[in-house]
Write a structure and sequence with these properties.
The chain contains 4 helices and 3 strands, in the order ααβαβαβ. It has 160 residues and is of the alpha+beta class. A 3-stranded antiparallel β-sheet has the order 1-2-3.
Length: 160
């Protein structure tokens, strides 16, 4: 005599097995979301720092870039995303432009400003654990670099 199987019990077993297989995929998706948000924050902060550094006097570009990075750290970084910092900063202009900035000659100064930032991301689930096993640290470090031109008119102080 054949026994009828309980269809609810069979459904529960199938759902449990499916969840066991699906759970790692869901956790990896959460990790990837954290990584994408971190890379996006890093890129936006680098672009904004470079844009702000390229406005105004070329001698003050570093303080403007640091102010933007500090503001981004204050407003954007929480939990698994941390340690946004300015890695490299550089201002390129000609020797003539340096003389115009230093002397009281005045005139137009132009060049480029380059800002490079790094951001540490700590994926909370599987990707962080796998990376920790492979490299010994669970942080992923991402870099962004932007270069923008600037043009600045230096006032002639001798005419005042």
């Amino acid at each position: 005599m054949a026994r009828n199987r309980n269809s609810k019990a069979q459904l529960m077993i199938e759902c449990s097995a499916g969840l066991i297989a699906l759970l790692p995929v869901i956790l990896c998706l959460f990790d990837l979301i954290v990584i994408v948000v971190g890379v996006s924050v890093n890129d936006a902060a680098c672009r904004e720092a470079c844009r702000v550094a390229s406005t105004g006097s070329p001698t003050m570009y570093l303080s403007r870039a640091n102010a933007v990075i500090a503001k981004s750290v204050l407003y954007n970084l929480r939990g698994a995303i941390g340690n946004l910092r300015l890695v490299e900063k550089d201002s390129h202009n000609s020797q003539e432009a340096d003389e115009k900035i230093d002397d009281t000659v005045g005139g137009n100064v132009s060049g480029t400003v380059t800002v490079k930032t790094s951001l540490e991301v700590y994926p909370p689930f599987l990707i962080g654990a796998i990376h920790k096993q492979a490299s010994g640290t669970e942080k992923l470090v991402f870099y962004a670099q932007q270069t923008m031109p600037y043009s600045f008119a230096v006032a002639n102080e001798s005419e005042n």
